Amino acid sequence: MRRYPLFWLSLAAALCSVAAFYRLLAPEVARTRRSELAFRAGLEHLRSLAHLPETREKLADKEFQTACRLAPNRDRMLRRITAACLAEHFYNQALYYAEKRLALDQSYEWVMYCGHLAYLAGDVEKCTKYYEQAIDMRPRDWTPYNALGYFYADLGIKLDRAEELLTTALALEEESRPPEPISFLLRSFGAETRVNRAMILDSLAWLHYRQKRLDQAWREISEAYRILPYDPTISYHYDEIKRACAPAHRSA
């Protein structure tokens, strides 16, 4: 040590710096770890088969609240919890945490996501609220019109409003297409527009099926099925409408 005093002094200073840095960082590391453990515990409660779903939801919520409180990045934690609840089919709980995240970021995409979760949860009031909000944010986008119109048609409620929404969606989708010469060159875009049209036609067909307008429903679902024959929702609607139309065709 006598021969290299500067080396040993530098080493001691470096060790003191590391120790000081660790003392500052240790609480934050421990907090992050506790947040992660709480998230994992909540996820295990959701997946557990030892309790009824209501009990599992309450136990998980307690852990998730702790995870949010301790998380260094609350936005990311809310996203993770929402995705976990959705994956385990706890739609009301997924919507609850999605709304908490929406308070941090009022983006169009997250408003639409909340509308979708409300649809899965069967919450008519919130589904209407979020999709109408999305329509106000982007009035030229056909997507929220189609989503809300299909939601009403699927539940068999507000069918007149559903028809208005879906007719508007179809008109907006047609307006968004490029001219024919350009769409011929942009083949990928053309394929996308056909898929969009199929989705709206499927919604319209399901609405007209609910309204007992079977001939119109059959024309619409047949076109949608030609475009997307492997889509499970369109295939289901195709079979149901075909079955409903069969007696009429037989009597004719």
Residue stretches low in confidence (pLDDT < 50, at least 5 long) are 185-189
Reported for the largest beta sheet, the result is: none
Rounded to an integer in angstroms, the radius of gyration calculated over CA atoms is 27 Å
Task: Provide the CATH topology of the domain at 140-252.
Answer: Serine Threonine Protein Phosphatase 5, Tetratricopeptide repeat
Tally of individual helices: 12
> Per DSSP, what share of the residues sits in E-state strands of 2 or more residues?
under 5%
CATH architecture of the domain at 140-252: Alpha Horseshoe
| Percent in helix | over 70%
Distance between the termini: 107 Å
Q: Give the oligomeric state of the chains in this entry, treating copies of one chain as homo and distinct chains as hetero.
A: single chain
Mean pLDDT: 84
Return the structural class: mainly alpha
Shape: elongated
Explained architecture:
This protein is mainly alpha-helical. The chain has a domain at 140-252: Serine Threonine Protein Phosphatase 5, Tetratricopeptide repeat, CATH 1.25.40. It is 83% helix and 0% strand. Helix 7 packs parallel to helix 10 and helix 8 (159-175) packs antiparallel against helix 10 (187-210).
Overview in brief:
The chain has 252 residues and is mostly helical.
Task: Present the secondary structure layout.
Elements: H1 5-47, H2 53-70, H3 74-87, H4 91-102, H5 108-121, H6 124-137, H7 142-155, H8 159-175, H9 180-185, H10 187-210, H11 214-227, H12 232-251
Helix pairs in contact: 1-2, 2-3, 3-4, 4-5, 5-6, 6-7, 7-8, 7-10, 8-10, 10-11, 11-12
